């Protein structure tokens, strides 16, 4: 190749792509067609939605947003599919598979509302429980709205491709290229590049260390029998993935102070909803485009007298006059079926008061379920492995083949009690302990351990 021709090829490649520097993945390269999706108002909205919601109020380094996370997931998805295509050319590769997976990865979080999971799990679930709404449903709505408003972006993707992208986002498997469903939202065993990015990114910004190495896992992955399998020596690395996820939920995502602020913002939204119609936005993509973390500022700086209660709650957050953690109980397995929501709730707790003036509205009961991503199952039981000596034969690994120190149990239930009034902490705690005594003589709570 002559020097002129080489320089011409380099110039053309630069014109066809754009490079974005990322603190986690280094220099990420995206082709111009995906840059056009990034430059839509739908995707740019994610710049104003904190990846970790209210965790930022406790860990000030956790200021990253859904925007950069989605870029990272798209980068990893593209890299993994390209690697599989290059190392396993014998597979029947989907002609538009790379494009569809990259687009699904980029758009998988378009449906997140203000403060990420808080919006769906606390606000919408309470305001509109009948809708059973999730951010995945929101992503579908926003993706379809994006395409309707920017039809020129999908000139080389047909209707079947668009449906495929939506199924990849939702993790709804079809017969088309089955292994591609293991990449963005893996419902088979919960190992996907979404986790690869957010575990690395969240640990980085939280200032926490992770021993999970996603780059090794990607390097030692292989498609066998229409699914992504892993080299058996990476089995402990996979346990590190799920342990890191559990640890982040335990230490950061569900930190007591973060959860208290979650409830405060939820209450501010509930008080403002009749005026600002926040919950109505899940039915209208044009209105949902306006929904991001700045809604808190809109309430705070409004002169509308109907927003006074919401403004008072936000003012408490600014002054760190927060709802308070009262007490908690780590539920033993043999009591999980007994300590249900019917048995442990606000009404049951205040029934034990002794002229303390407690009201149901003073108390919030939080049932925190932590696991390895597949409820009480070991997700590694759903992972297939291969040996380099027999690269096309898959097998499962028992825990005893990995380590005797991996968990025996993969899900735990924590019942945590919060109050909106710090003056009522002691009487509420006493009531909670008396209620627990109905099921266990000497309950070991953990209020003094936090």
Automatic annotation (TrEMBL):
Keyword entries, A-Z: Hydrolase
GO molecular function terms attached to this record: dGTPase activity
UniProt keyword Membrane present: no
SMART domains, sorted: HDc
Signal peptide span: none
SUPFAM superfamilies: HD-domain/PDEase-like (SSF109604)
Domain HD, first and last residues per copy: 66-199
Protein name per its UniProtKB record: HD phosphohydrolase domain-containing protein
Source species: Rhizophagus irregularis
């Amino acid at each position: 190749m002559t020097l002129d021709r080489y320089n011409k090829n380099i110039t053309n490649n630069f014109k066809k792509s754009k490079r974005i520097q990322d603190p986690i993945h280094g220099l990420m390269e995206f082709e111009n067609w995906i840059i056009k999706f990034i430059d839509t108002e739908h995707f740019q909205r994610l710049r104003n939605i904190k990846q970790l919601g209210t965790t930022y109020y406790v860990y000030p380094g956790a200021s990253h947003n859904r925007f950069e996370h989605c870029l990272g997931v798209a980068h990893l998805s593209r890299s993994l599919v390209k690697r599989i295509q290059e190392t396993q050319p014998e597979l029947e590769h989907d002609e538009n598979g790379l494009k569809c997976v990259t687009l699904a990865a980029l758009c998988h979080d378009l449906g997140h509302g203000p403060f990420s999971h808080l919006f769906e799990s606390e606000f919408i679930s309470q305001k509109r429980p009948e809708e059973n709404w999730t951010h995945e449903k929101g992503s579908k709505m926003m993706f379809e709205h994006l395409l309707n408003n920017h039809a020129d972006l999908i000139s080389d993707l047909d209707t079947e491709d668009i449906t495929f992208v939506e199924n990849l986002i939702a993790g709804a498997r079809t017969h088309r290229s089955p292994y591609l469903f293991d990449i963005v939202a893996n419902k088979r065993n919960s190992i996907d590049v979404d986790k690869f990015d957010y575990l690395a990114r969240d640990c980085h910004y939280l200032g926490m260390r992770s021993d999970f190495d996603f780059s090794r896992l990607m390097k030692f992955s292989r498609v066998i029998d229409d699914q992504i399998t892993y080299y058996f020596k990476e089995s402990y690395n996979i346990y590190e993935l799920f342990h890191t996820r559990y640890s982040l939920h335990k230490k950061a995502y569900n930190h007591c102070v973060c959860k208290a602020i979650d409830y405060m913002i939820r209450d501010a939204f509930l008080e403002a909803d009749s005026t600002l119609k926040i919950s109505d936005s899940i039915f209208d993509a044009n209105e949902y485009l306006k929904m991001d973390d700045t809604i808190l500022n809109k309430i705070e700086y409004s002169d509308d007298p109907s927003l006074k209660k919401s403004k008072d709650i936000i003012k408490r957050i600014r002054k760190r006059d927060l709802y308070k953690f009262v007490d908690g109980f780590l539920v033993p397995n043999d009591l999980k079926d007994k300590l249900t929501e019917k048995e442990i709730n606000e009404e049951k707790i205040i029934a034990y008061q002794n002229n303390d003036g407690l009201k149901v509205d003073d108390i919030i009961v939080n049932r925190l379920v932590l696991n390895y991503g597949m409820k009480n199952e070991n997700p590694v039981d759903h992972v297939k492995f291969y040996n380099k000596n027999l690269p096309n034969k898959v097998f499962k690994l028992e825990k005893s083949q990995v380590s005797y120190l991996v968990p025996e149990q993969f899900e735990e239930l924590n019942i945590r009690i919060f109050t909106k009034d710090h003056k009522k902490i002691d009487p509420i705690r006493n009531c909670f302990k008396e209620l627990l005594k109905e099921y266990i003589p000497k309950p070991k709570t953990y209020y003094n351990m936090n």
